[in-house]
Specification:
The chain is α+β, with helices and mostly antiparallel strands and about 450 residues long. The chain has twelve helices and eight strands. The protein is elongated, with a radius of gyration of 40 Å.
Length: about 450
């Protein structure tokens, strides 16, 4: 009765674990990564900041307006600005003012600053897209590596099941007196080796699952399962486009390349801005204000009413201000030199980005080409290996071939299955990576 109770309890726990298990597809993993990735969040924050700076650069063309108010207490000898007298008493005073100013010309600084901020914002937006593509690439590689290892584990388990069937057969033959213990020991040895391979694959699979879960920033204590991918031979054996076409598409689509190009334009505007810092600036300003003081007296000796003081003490002013930089302790020259270096570095960054894109596309294209040729050869080879294995198995069962020959055929078939599986997922990985580079992956998932 206790055994039945324990079995029921364990079954309930197992059922609860199954129900709590979450199965994630590749598309769902990508969406989770795009939502949780910290680098992507930082890139989006940088884009928001760049947009705010771009808006501010446009607002710099508007006039500025400010208001001020004051209340003062003074003791002793002083000159009272409001009454226009030198007094030696306790003075209370105050006032208010409105001030407006507008830059008419500042050496094209506002214009170049607005253009630079606009390019920087566009570059930040492209950086967000580039980070999204990098996140997608990382998830695709991790996900398909995991699925490939799971398929290899499946093959290893199938091989182990075959060895166990053969072991059971040999044990029966040995007990019947028509077999020998040498064959039994041989199969036990092969099973032990195969179980070691299975344990290695299981450990590798667990590590890859943890890596993917960490990449998605999910809780490792939760129970996740990852759905497989269905692919047909036509997709695997589809002919590749010419490399030149693939690279041109990648170059045209690449957000990282566009980001570098826009950053170069921003640096160019910053450099142009620094070249005009020696020019004069012209601005216009106006102000209105009034004030009051306890030293302004009426005829009866009392402090004049504040409303009358405000009306009597009004002042207005307007003017043009011209500023000509004659000597700035070489700050303008230094700024121009630094801006020029930043511009040259932006050119190098653009060149480096182009080289990285070219290298990445070349490597992915070559890997895909090799994987396709390996897949075709492995597929054809496996057909022959399967035929040879079945023939060898039949002859081994009939006792016409020895164990070593049979084992060679088993191992050859295993290698053929593993090679086919590895090449299949290598094609999927490289094809998806190329699609990410060229923008086809993004179109397919819209």
């Amino acid at each position: 009765m206790k055994k039945i109770l324990y079995t029921a309890i364990l079954s309930l726990f197992a059922l609860a674990n199954v129900q709590a298990q979450t199965t994630l597809t590749l598309e769902e993993c990508i969406n989770i990564a795009l939502e949780n990735n910290l680098s992507l969040k930082r890139a989006r924050n940088s884009s928001i900041s760049a947009k705010a700076q771009m808006v501010q650069s446009k607002m710099n063309f508007l006039p500025s307006l400010s208001a001020g108010a004051s209340y003062n207490w003074n003791e002793g000898l002083q000159f009272d600005q409001t009454s226009g007298n030198l007094v030696n008493t306790t003075t209370l005073s105050g006032g208010g003012s409105l001030n407006a100013s507008m830059v008419i010309f500042n050496g094209m600084s506002n214009i170049y600053n607005a253009q630079r901020a606009n390019f920087q914002y566009q570059a930040a937006e492209e950086t967000v897209r580039s980070t999204e593509l990098q996140t997608e690439r990382d998830v695709v590689v991790a996900f398909l590596d995991l699925i490939s290892t799971r398929e290899q584990l499946k093959i290893a388990n199938q091989t182990n099941d075959l060895y166990k069937e053969q072991l059971e057969r040999e044990e029966k033959r040995e007990r019947a007196g028509v077999g020998n213990m040498e064959q039994v020991y041989n199969f036990r040895s092969q099973i032990a080796q195969q179980e070691l391979i299975i344990v290695t694959r299981q450990n590798q699979l667990q590590s890859q699952e943890l890596r993917l879960i960490q990449l998605l920033l999910l809780d490792p204590s939760d129970n996740y399962e990852f759905a497989g991918i269905t692919v047909n031979d036509a997709e695997l054996e589809a002919e590749l486009e010419a490399y030149a076409t693939v690279y041109d598409n990648a170059r045209e689509f690449s957000p990282s390349l566009r980001s570098a190009e826009l950053a170069l334009q921003a640096s160019k505007k910053s450099y142009r801005q620094s070249q005009f810092t020696w020019m004069p600036s012209l601005s216009v300003g106006a102000s209105y204000g009034t004030g009051w003081s306890s030293n302004v007296k009426a005829q009866d000796g009392t402090v004049l009413d504040l409303s009358d003081q405000f009306r009597n003490n009004e002042y207005k002013s307007a003017g043009l201000n011209l500023n000509i930089p004659l000597f700035t302790r070489f700050q303008n020259r230094t700024q121009m030199q630094v801006s020029k270096i930043n511009y040259l570095n932006s050119e190098l960054t653009l060149q480096d980005t182009e080289n990285q894109l070219r290298n990445q596309v070349q490597q992915a294209y070559l890997d895909l080409l090799n994987a396709k040729s390996t897949y075709v050869a492995a597929k054809e080879s496996l057909v022959n290996l399967e035929t040879s294995f079945e023939f060898s198995k039949t002859r081994y069962d009939n006792g016409t071939v020895d164990f070593v020959t049979y084992l060679e055929n088993v191992n050859a078939r295993n290698v053929g299955e593993l090679t086919l599986t590895q090449s299949k997922y290598a094609i999927l990985i490289r094809q998806m990576v190329l699609d990410i580079y060229t923008g086809q992956f993004e179109l397919a998932n819209k």
